[in-house]
Design brief:
With 139 residues, this protein is mainly α. It has five helices and four strands; from the N terminus they run E-E-E-E-H-H-H-H-H. It has a two-stranded antiparallel ribbon. A hairpin with a 5-residue loop joins strand 2 and strand 3.
């Protein structure tokens, strides 16, 4: 376990006037698996990241860390994180009437659906439940 920001995404990473990286929104930091922030960044709903770029970034992470995360562990963190985002985006868009988050619903959904086949075998029986919950229908 390491200190994770839990909300590690493009909107919380800024470059200041002296070209230094600044991290915002870190008040919810916690001890968690090292890959938690990696999952959030690689599947950031606010920016389009294609599969090839994700693989390159994952390779860089593995090279720096000395070992890649397991596919299953990363998939589990992606599903957890993006289901949370999916629910939040839909709630804010459909129940609270704030359309700013509507464009990100599909990216969050796609990240979950893309990661489901990589879940650990012991959790594969939950895949149909997730697929049903993520159908495109009114909340």
């Amino acid at each position: 376990r390491v200190v994770c920001l839990r909300d590690y995404q493009s909107q919380n990473l800024m470059i200041d006037a002296r070209e230094r990286l600044r991290i915002l929104d870190y008040q919810d930091a916690l001890l968690a698996p090292a890959e938690l922030d990696l999952a959030a960044l690689l599947h950031d709903s606010y920016i389009e990241i294609d599969a090839s770029t994700r693989r390159e970034l994952l390779d860089l992470y593995a090279e720096e860390r000395g070992c890649p995360p397991t596919r299953e562990a990363l998939a589990l963190l992606i599903v957890q994180r993006k289901c949370k985002d999916f629910g939040r985006y839909r709630l804010v868009t459909e129940k609270k009437g704030d359309a700013r988050y509507a464009p990100f619903i599909q990216r969050a959904r796609d990240s979950v659906l893309e990661s489901l086949p990589q879940l650990p075998s012991a959790l594969q029986h939950f895949v149909p439940v997730f697929e049903n919950a993520l159908q495109d229908r009114p909340a």
